[in-house]
Structure formats: structure tokens, C-alpha cells
UniProtKB/TrEMBL annotation:
Protein species of origin: Antrihabitans stalactiti
GO terms of molecular function: DNA-binding transcription factor activity; transcription cis-regulatory region binding
Keyword entries, A-Z: DNA-binding
HTH tetR-type domain segment(s): 19-79
Record keyword Magnesium present: no
Top-level taxon of origin: Bacteria
SUPFAM superfamilies from the UniProt entry: Homeodomain-like
Any matching Pfam family: TetR_N
DNA-binding region: 42-61
Name of the molecule in the record: TetR/AcrR family transcriptional regulator
Amino acid sequence: MSQGLHIAGDEPSERADAARNRRLLLDAAGALVAEQGADAVTMDKVAAKAGVGKGTVFRRFTNRAGLMRALLDHTETQLQQDFMFGPPPLGPGAAPLDRLIAFGCARLALVGVEGEVLRAADASPETRYTHPAHRLCHAHITMLMRAAGVTGDIPLLADVLLASLDASLVMAQLTTPGVDLARVAAAWEDLVRRIVR
């Protein structure tokens, strides 16, 4: 993952028009990944979908890998905003067990885009697990498990829970006949309920 990812709310200030263009470009890139897969995404296609010149995309992201890393940052930041400040059950105000289940479902909803982008951005496993975004998700799950009264080695249990949501793993699971995101989400809920007894 990109070392440039910011924890939600920690972004440097940006001109309103630049921020709008960035969101527009990232939304266009995300839509293209969802529609055609990461391999089909080019700087030209992103520019056309966003309705801007190709030079704007290159000035903003330098190259395709930079665009893919920024798209990962964008999806992670949105998830962070949702679980820290959004409505329940993902956000504050729901029981810890309900929030854990909702977190897994929200993460799984990103798998199609995130898995493709991780592969395209060539995110290294060494940095993926030490990255601030991963650490924040780990801290969130740890906090919810403690609030739910889970006992045992909570940091390692949090690793196990997060590992089951890994985009590469889930994308591999989805190639198995009869396995879809609903089935993976049901397995996540079952796993969480077994840990939070």
C-alpha cells in the first residue's frame, strides 16, 4: 500500500477545486475498476470518464501506479470516516458485536475494487501490515473486541479477524463455485460471533 495514505481527517489542506478534481478523478478510477477491472484502467480512460484533460490526471498522480495507490488511499479513508464517524451499526452508537459484523461487511464491499487495485499497485505484504491504515483497522477491531468483553490474546485475534477480510484472499475465495460475497460475509459474522461469546 502507499506510504502516503493518511489517517482520515489528517489530510493536508487542499484548494477546494483541487480537492474536487481529486475526488472526481478517484471516483472515475474506482468506477472503471468496478466496471472493467484494474488492468483495463488507463490514464486516458480516467480522464475521459472524469471529463478532464489527460494532463490533469498525470499532474495529479504522475503515473498509473500513483493513481492506483491514491485510489487505495481514497477507499481506505472513506471506510475510516464511516467506522469512526458514520451512522450505526458501522459507526458509533451500536453494540460492539454489531459494529464488528458491520465492519467486516463494509470491508468486504470494497473487495472488488480494493483487490484489483492492490494487485495493480503491487502493494507489498511487508508494508501492508505495518501501514497506518491497517494499524487503524487493527486498533478499531481490538477496541470493539475489548468493549464486547472478549478475553484472550486480543491483538492476535484481531490479526485473525483482519486476515479473513484480506482482499487477495476474498478474491481467491470468490473464484470457488458457489461462493459469493454474501456467503463470505455470513462466514465473517459466524467467526465474529464465535470469538465474541
